[in-house]
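Q: Could you predict the 3D structure of RES domain-containing protein?
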Amino acid sequence: MRWEGTCYRAHDPKWAWSPISGAGAAAKGGRFNPIGTPALYLALTVEGMLVEMGHGFGHRFDPLTICSYNVDVDDIVDLRTDSGRAREAIDLASMACPWAYDLATGKLPASWEIAKSLIAKGAAGILSPSFATGARSDMANLILWRWGSDLPHKVEVHDPSGRLPKDQLSWS
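A: Sure. Here are the predicted structure tokens for RES domain-containing protein:
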């Protein structure tokens, strides 16, 4: 399916110069990207982004750079609903697995198997419920494995004033 709209992300400031790289996610892995697989995790709402960035700590978080994105992407699999998950034979429990704990204990996270399977089928990304602590049932994320500056997988950071740094040296 095609998804078009505005998304939001809170970055570690050290990545502010490259807000659509996906390199940080590739280095550490994430719920829906095995280590080595670039991914761009975007919240569909500002409120959802705040929940995601807080990691369950509503009143304490590290310094962050907040960006909004103009997104127009195709080849998206919508896993926000029971019917969407059923079409792909994916269960919510596998999506919601304790992926970081699994990884730390030497177990392959079930959510990584989901990602690998969908990537192999040609999916550019998924729409997923938010699994962040404190997320409401209406909060969702767009997780991309393929994106760039052109259609059909277009993602642009909204920076009309050129406020974002151009490289790491901008911080010194």
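Q: Anything worth pointing out?
A: The mean pLDDT is 93.
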